[in-house]
Amino acid sequence: MITKNINKLAKSLVEVNITVPWIDLQPQWDQTLQKMAADVEIAGFRKGQAPLNLVEGQLGTRLQDEVLKVAMPNFLIEALKGADIVPIDYPKYNLISFVQGSQLEFKAAVTNRPYVTVGDYKAIIAARPSIKPATEEEIQKVIDDLFKKWKVRNPIVQQNQQQGGSISFQGGQAQNEIATSSLDKLGIPRNDNVVDAPNDDFAKAMGATSLINLREKVRKDLDANISYNNELDYEEAILQEVEKITTVELPDILIQDELNRMLVSLQRRVADMGLLLEDYLKGQGKTLEQLKNEWMPQAEKNVRMELGLAEIARKENVTISDTELQAEVDKIQDGRVKKQFEAQEPRLHLRHALRQTRTLDLLKKMVGG
């Protein structure tokens, strides 16, 4: 029988000292030896047919490494049975001593799921921001921007331009034919109609039936976007209140994970601008470490908010069934992305995200939104 000593440290860190007698470890040793022996070649014997004592000697420390790779996690799980410890990261193992035929002694360090307390979340007050419909100026700006892009894709040769290097359509049929030929050589689509402002033809090219219809489509899209952002602002206001009433000693591993998530988000935005993160940081006159230090307070708030919401989910018994989880996976169109959810870890992350979303929806009803 194994012996254990569990020490709870600050910031949810836990150290577990474990001693395993040889009698408990020997079955794993023998099983691993048998498995590895099948691939060992020793002179005078067929592959996989050499006596186990010879194989054992040839494998040396490789055999011990393979045994401990499996044994230490299994004995850690056994040691934590009945303890109020739920690891939220991968354990770090430290071998103290081990000799074949003798006991195994090692230490494992894990981060325990932190203890979280949340105040009276049912009394949260958060005001939904008022929705301001799209203005005529905003609508016109969208149409003007679309028109500018449309003109770039559909170059128009302006008439009565006699500037050097320009093409003129004046001077009779022969000159028109020369001009037309020049356009073809330049690869410029011919268009005899001069369009200086958005009109129905432009609107039809945008998928509308007329300019009036395009304005209504743009208005509808802008209003939908305003409504969506309004909902996000409302949810953020609720989450800010959850963070304020959440008390928890934040584990370092969760803060580092959040900082990494924020960094990935920044990298994507920088890439969209056509820059490398290194160039962006130089432009800001900051190092990566300086940036992370600036982000630290926000990262801590984000983690506290996340843990608070998860605790509310536990208190309200919010769950996501296997059927609901699979239904969400089935919505994924990309086959390669969908295949990733055959593994357990991505499914756990998705289940957690769905549970957090459902909990937020529950809070919105409580608040009155």
Describe the model:
The chain has 369 residues and is α+β, with helices and mostly antiparallel strands. The chain has four domains: 3-113, Trigger factor ribosome-binding domain (Alpha-Beta Plaits); 116-152 and 196-247, no CATH class; 157-194, no CATH class; 250-367, no CATH class. The chain is 57% helix and 9% strand. It is built from 13 helices and six strands. It has helices at residues 22-37, 52-59, 61-80, 136-153, 173-186, 200-205, 211-244, 252-272, 277-284, 288-315, 322-330, 335-340, 344-367; strands at 3-8, 13-20, 92-98, 104-111, 117-118, 246-247. The strands form two sheets. A four-stranded antiparallel sheet has the order 1-2-4-3. A hairpin with a 5-residue loop joins strand 3 and strand 4 (104-111). It is elongated and about 90 Å long. Residues 157-192 have low confidence and may be disordered.
